């Protein structure tokens, strides 16, 4: 460090001398550098920084500079010179105002120079590491290996990690007293665990032994304390982390890479404010920090839902060899819906880190680093969205203007303008009939009902609708009823510019409602210039299928279906409305499917005994199919009814597959086929997940489809993605018992018991203490070893069974959880003897029956269940 020269008034000399002292002192704190003492360097004061000066001082690299003052401004010009080549490795100019605290000014300037030059990722370290990169690692001394380790920390290439680890081990056997070498080896061992680099058994134990050896040799070794801080971090020892992290900062605050690393650990441990403060100070001092620091800032932005900022920071990290860069780009792009960025990052992961394409592996990796389980889930959520963007390019490429993109429409729920505001079911029904009429047209892509209707109330926000549903046109409208008169106003709008393409008002008698729906559907086809050439012949004459000519029966069916979709206490009034509809029109197939589905739903919810539900469900389903053999809804009703009431898997399979052949977009068919048939009846877990994904792909904003996928993922053991998807289901329908119960079960299967209990208690509150929730809570207490808690839930179920019908199947899991195995088997035997639909549904593969299912007595029941069934 050559004494700085100066020009200007007297304070320039004072500043030059002060900076020379401070920079020399700062450089001396870096153990991998040998610094010529200040009084020795004085002999070269005022001389050129060349080879002769270097030779005189015994140094290869020289730092020189000039301080100039002019008025109230000081300018520092500083250079780092490699005297062997006379090359200027680095030069910088700093302008600062004079006046005020001169020591603060010196600290600021000296800190920036020292951090930029001497940091383990600084200009000088990178040059020294580069000079060693082509040499055989086994030929290097420990000190040289330390420098090469600094170079490795720029890119983290697995092959270099393996070479360095082996070389350090051999070199330290020769030079066992090298503290910095042991500290570097400790960090290499830690990276086996934290970065999954060439892992061998017991990496953290080996890291601890090496770090402790380094501290014994040199208690002031910052690298050693950094390794100890990492051990406290991965042990989840917050107090230990705080102590070791502050020790790292105190030993050398200008070694910004080590300081930033403990900032990372503090942030990921939940102390975000302190961690980010440390990192931002390090970034301010040293512009050459490794790229991973940007990943920490990106994670903090993501945590605060500033996804656009997170994406910018993630791209700055630029370390594809590490998983951090592509992952952070992916999660931010997923949340922003940016398909191009998502594809680039997913491709990088596929190339360099293919194991992390599995959300469960990804969750396990993030859980290594993030102490906040909720943040881990949210990160996985972003990744899952990014994968969806890549795997559904036509759906996701919002900027694409392909023919498929142009011929696309969302049918929004029509507004109820009736004076009493009691006709929402009717308005929804009209919109849904038009949607159903347009869906089969092969040249028109129609957003699914649940997704479109989830944006109810956003009819004026065309841009949002277009982006969320990936459509270019939107059909909205309003309905006003007055007695038997109805006024329907519709508008077809262009999402891009907000202009209406077409609008019309219809004032008709209620008996003409089917003709109005047909007119609207045909007008849409004409306005969007959709060709009917590929439309099935049976749809060309009339787009809207008229299931009945009885308008009263039609209205009863619409009211019933709206209630049935709500489940819970709405099922019984829905059933009554369907029955009234078939009394008015006995040939109304859809109303018969409503009856069948209602009886099937109350059967698997445990509301009616099988003696009451079975004959009515099967008879209604067969009647619906007899009236309309081409009805996907009728085939779906028969499939589920025969699976749950007759245990006939073969017939159920044929009926489900026929329903999906007739209408591949039939949500209920694919949901029941995925979960009830493939997973719970047949144990085909991965196929069930695939089918559930397909259902959600068609209806991406549907809370129900999201819930079904959650349960399928959980049943298949994909716990991380199940939790992420389950949270999304709850967000989409906060009042849904099913969504909260499935989410709670997913948390329970992942071992996150406190969060699971909170979610299951919420489900129990919403569902009037439904047996599903109570049984799950009992199982959760059993897993925690709280048998008294499980017993309490079991006794509550027993008390309920004394007051009202409760299927024996609903008691099995709670009895087992409370430690009553014999009772659980008795309940199972009774449930099978009575052919309870709930037992047939859950016996084979429902996760909460896992323990009791291993009992030989239960196995005997399963063998009897799996005997061939005569169709």
Question: If you had to describe this structure to a student in words, what would you say it looks like?
Answer:
- The protein is α/β, with parallel strands linked by helices.
- It has 45 helices and ten strands.
- Strands 5, 6, 7, 8, 9 and 10 form a six-stranded mixed β-sheet that branches. Strands 1-2-3-4 form a four-stranded mixed β-sheet, covered by helices on one side.
- The protein is elongated and about 110 Å long.
- The termini are far apart.
- The relative contact order is 0.04.
- The model is unreliable at 393-406 and 533-542 (pLDDT under 50).
What average pLDDT do the residues reach? 87
State which percent range the strand residues make up. Answer: 5-15%
- Radius of gyration, CA atoms, in whole angstroms: 35 Å
Q: Which range best describes the helical content: under 10%, 10-25%, 25-40%, 40-55%, 55-70% or over 70%?
A: 55-70%
Instruction: Work out the number of β strands.
Output: 10
Going by helix content, strand content and strand pairing, the class is: alpha/beta
**Main sheet attributes: strand count, strand direction, barrel closure:** 6 strands, mixed
Number of helices, where a helix is a run of at least 4 consecutive DSSP H or I residues: 45
**Termini Cα gap:** 93 Å
Which blocks of ≥5 consecutive residues have pLDDT under 50?
A: 393-406, 533-542
Specify the overall morphology.
Answer: elongated
């Amino acid at each position: 460090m050559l004494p700085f020269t100066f020009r200007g008034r007297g304070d320039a000399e004072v500043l030059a001398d002060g900076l020379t002292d401070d920079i020399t002192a700062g450089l001396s704190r870096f153990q991998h550098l040998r610094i010529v003492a200040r009084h020795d360097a004085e002999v070269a004061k005022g001389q050129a920084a060349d080879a002769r000066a270097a030779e005189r001082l015994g140094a290869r690299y020289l730092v020189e500079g000039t301080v100039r003052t002019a008025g109230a401004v000081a300018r520092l010009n500083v250079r780092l010179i490699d005297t062997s080549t006379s090359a200027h490795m680095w030069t910088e100019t700093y302008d600062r105002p004079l006046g005020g605290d001169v020591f603060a000014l010196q600290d600021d300037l000296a800190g920036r120079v020292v951090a930029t030059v001497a940091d383990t990722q600084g200009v000088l370290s990178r040059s020294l590491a580069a000079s060693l990169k082509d040499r055989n690692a086994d030929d290097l001394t420990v000190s040289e290996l330390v420098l090469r380790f600094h170079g490795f920390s720029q890119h983290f290439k697995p092959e270099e990690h393996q070479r360095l680890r082996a070389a350090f081990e051999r070199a330290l056997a020769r030079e066992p007293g090298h503290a910095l070498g042991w500290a570097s080896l400790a960090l290499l061992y830690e990276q086996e665990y934290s970065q999954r680099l060439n892992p061998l058994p017991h990496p953290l134990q080996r890291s601890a032994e090496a770090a402790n050896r380094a501290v014994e040799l040199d208690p002031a070794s910052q690298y050693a304390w950094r390794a100890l801080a990492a051990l406290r971090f991965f042990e989840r020892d917050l107090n230990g982390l705080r102590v070791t992290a502050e020790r790292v900062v105190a030993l050398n605050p200008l070694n910004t890479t080590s300081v930033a690393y403990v900032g990372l650990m503090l942030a990921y441990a939940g102390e975000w404010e302190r961690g980010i403060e440390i990192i931002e100070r390090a970034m301010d001092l040293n512009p050459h920090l490794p790229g991973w620091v940007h990943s920490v800032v990106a994670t903090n932005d993501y945590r605060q839902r500033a996804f656009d900022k997170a994406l910018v920071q993630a791209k700055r990290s630029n370390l594809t060899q590490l998983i951090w860069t592509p992952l952070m780009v992916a999660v931010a792009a997923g949340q922003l819906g940016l398909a191009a960025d998502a594809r680039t990052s997913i491709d990088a992961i596929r190339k360099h880190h293919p194991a992390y394409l599995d959300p469960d592996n990804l969750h396990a990796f993030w859980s290594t680093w993030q102490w906040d389980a909720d943040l881990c889930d949210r990160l996985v959520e972003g990744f899952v969205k990014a994968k969806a963007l890549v795997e559904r390019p036509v759906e996701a490429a919002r900027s694409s203007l392909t023919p498929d993109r142009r011929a696309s429409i969302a049918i929004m729920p029509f507004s109820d303008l009736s004076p009493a505001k009691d006709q929402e079911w009717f308005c929804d029904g009209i919109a849904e009939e038009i949607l159903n009429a347009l869906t089969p047209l092969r040249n028109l892509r129609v957003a699914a009902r649940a997704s479109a209707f989830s944006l109810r109330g956003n009819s004026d926000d065309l841009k949002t609708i277009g982006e969320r549903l990936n459509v270019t046109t939107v059909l909205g409208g309003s309905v006003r009823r007055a007695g038997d008169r109805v006024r329907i106003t519709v508008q077809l709008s262009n999402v891009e510019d907000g202009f209406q393409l077409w609008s019309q008002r219809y004032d008709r008698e209620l008996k003409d409602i089917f003709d109005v729906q047909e007119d609207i559907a045909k007008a849409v086809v004409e306005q969007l210039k959709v060709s009917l050439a590929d439309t099935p012949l049976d749809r060309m004459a009339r787009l809207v299928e008229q299931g009945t000519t009885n308008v009263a029966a039609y209205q009863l069916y619409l009211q019933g279906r709206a209630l049935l979709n709500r489940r819970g206490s709405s099922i019984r009034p829905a059933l009554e409305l369907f029955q009234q509809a078939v009394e008015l029109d006995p040939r109304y197939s859809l109303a018969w499917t409503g009856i069948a589905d209602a009886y099937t739903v109350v059967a698997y919810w445990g509301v009616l005994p099988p003696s009451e539900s079975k004959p009515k469900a099967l008879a209604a389903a067969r009647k619906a199919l007899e009236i309309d053999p081409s009805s996907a809804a009728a085939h779906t009703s028969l499939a589920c009814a025969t699976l749950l009431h007759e245990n006939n898997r073969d017939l159920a399979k044929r009926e489900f597959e026929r329903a999906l052949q007739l209408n591949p977009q039939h949500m209920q068919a694919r949901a029941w086929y995925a979960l009830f048939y493939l997973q719970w009846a047949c144990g085909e877990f991965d196929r069930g997940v695939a089918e559930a994904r397909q259902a959600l792909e068609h209806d991406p904003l549907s809370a129900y489809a999201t819930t079904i996928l959650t349960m399928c993922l959980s049943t298949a053991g994909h716990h991380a993605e199940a939790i992420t998807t389950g949270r999304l289901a709850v967000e989409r329908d906060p009042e849904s018992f099913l969504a909260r119960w499935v989410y709670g079960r997913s948390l329970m299967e992942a071992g996150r018991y406190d969060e699971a209990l909170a979610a299951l208690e919420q489900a129990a509150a919403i569902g009037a203490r439904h047996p599903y929730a109570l049984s799950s809570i009992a199982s959760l207490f059993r897993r925690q070893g709280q048998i008294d808690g499980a017993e309490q839930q079991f006794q509550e179920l027993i008390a309920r069974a004394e007051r009202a019908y409760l299927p024996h199947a609903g008691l099995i899991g709670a009895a087992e959880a409370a430690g009553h195995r014999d009772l659980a088997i008795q309940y199972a035997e009774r449930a099978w003897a009575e052919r309870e639909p709930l037992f047939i549904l859950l016996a084979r593969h429902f996760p909460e029956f896992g323990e009791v299912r291993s009992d030989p007595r239960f196995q005997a029941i399963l063998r009897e269940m799996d005997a061939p069934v005569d169709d």
